[in-house]
Amino acid sequence: MTVGEITNRIDVAMGRKEADLVIKNASVVDVFNGRIIKGDVAVTDGVIVGVGEYSGKSEVNGANKYVMPSFYDAHLHFESVMVRPSEYLKLALPKGVTAFNADPHEIANVCGEKGIAFMIADTEGVPADVHFMMPSCVPSAPEDHAGCVLNASDVRRITEKYGLFGLGEMMNFPGVVNCDPDVIEKLTVSEVSDGHAPRVSGNALNGYLSGNIISDHECESVEEALEKVGKGMYVLIREGSQTKNLKTLIKAVNKTNLRRFLFCTDDRNIEDLTAQGTIANNIRLAVENGMDAIDAITIATLNAYEAYGVKKHGAIAPGYRANFLVTADLTAQKVEQVYYHGKLIAENGKPLFDLPPASIDGVTNTVNVKPFTAKDLEFPFEKGMTVMRVMSDTVVTEAVKAQSKDGLNLMCCIERHHATGSIGHCYVDGFHLKGGAIAQTVGHDAHNITVLGDNTEDMAIAVNSLGKAGGLVVVKNGEVIGKLTLDIAGLMSSAPAQESLETRALLTKALGEMEYNKEIEPFMLLSFLTLIVIPDVKLNHKGLFSVTKWDYEYIG
User: Fold this and answer.
1) Were 469 and a residue from 34, 332, 343, 487 both cysteine, which residue would form a disulfide, CB within 3.0 to 4.6 Å?
2) Does domain 70-313 have CATH number 3.20.20.140?
3) 215-240 b/e with 16+ CB inside 10 Å = b?
4) pTM for the complete prediction?
5) Which residues of the chain, if any, have pLDDT below 70?
6) pLDDT, tens digit, 9 for 90 and up, residues 124-140
7) Dihedral of CA 9/11/15/16: which sign?
8) Neighbours of 523 (CB within 10 A)
9) Which residues pair with 440 in a beta bridge?
């Protein structure tokens, strides 16, 4: 910053010069003192210079409006919305979010560096702080078979080449605590390393945190959150489309530990994003569950910036970046205006910017499956065998012994990157799908094909209907009744967000014609049933895997 810039800002702050922009007579959220103050918010050179009485070259009437810092989503994957990042941002920014810690490990598992480069290119020029994290676990664990493997030297090279913000969620917990050389080398790449440690406790958590990991978004209980906060972690309170932890974890927050919590969405589908938003939805739910609104806003703003070492952001105060929103309600359910660096970028739910989409060359036609038949999907049931039980509002599963095949669905994980022909099989309890099958190329994190149904003929039709592009397919009684093509890596659609939303709605409607457990989000849940770093038991291309025992010999 130059002498002239400093002098100009001081002159405006002192009232000797007009500000570039003034929001007049607003109710300003003070996240430092936890209060609302009345005044004008003055902005010059993209920075807030004061709250008080000011005049500006441009003035906006803020009477009966709240001015608060814009929000920070501390952990998400653009891929989970199934539209390209530029389309996601057109939806999210008007809802008040201007900062994102985005981990592109989904597309990295399919396309490697090309996938990461695409994600970065597709967000160039966006009026937001998009912090890309370097995927730390491609694949998520050595037992998986992804489209690419990124070792420690790759992680360092790519991080430096693209100037990435930090190291993404370290899912390979065994690799950390057992001091795997490649994993430990990855932990030296950045000063910021996100964690992923579901149910890790005691000395195991101590060892994990000694790897210089700062955060976790996988807490399920108050006790788990308090232990992790007590050991210096930042706990991200997640509210996604299938995994919903907020109502439980909010009970762990008090005035003493408030500053150690952040909000994130992690995985949220396009319908929920459009209808409910992202971080504003976390704020609303937190307030509905007893939290003070300003405390919730503080978690959504200042906490995240300070946790990740981003200075002079996340508050309405002199010298802080002018990233803020104007809303008629304190929980920001009706955001009227969003400003980034003092410029209006969204109004009344509509973006006021456009982004030229990046080329999708090199990230298409990624589905490569060895020919198979319905017979290859068959899996004999044995009384007393271990099956995977799924539940609502979580992607954690249980391993249970099944005495009967009644009520179970067959699930297969089919390798789709190198046409190896590997197929893992298991039975699933709790999905209760009848009369058909669903298949998809979204299967965290290796993103092989996942298919679930009540008969192998429909399952085979569903898989073959995915084609080279990939996507989501619903089959009923031998007929494809719904399909969403995801031509970018089998994870995202290159179509505009509105078109994808409409197609997804038709797909959801088609699935609604079938019988299944309506307490789950079927596509989102199915995508996580192959993620072998989340307890208790998951399925990959080899077979049923015990996450707690870290082997395929599950004994329940």
Assistant:
1) 487
2) yes
3) bbbbbbeeebbbbbbeeebbbbbbbb
4) 0.94
5) 553-556
6) 999 999 999 999 999 88
7) negative
8) 22
9) 450, 472
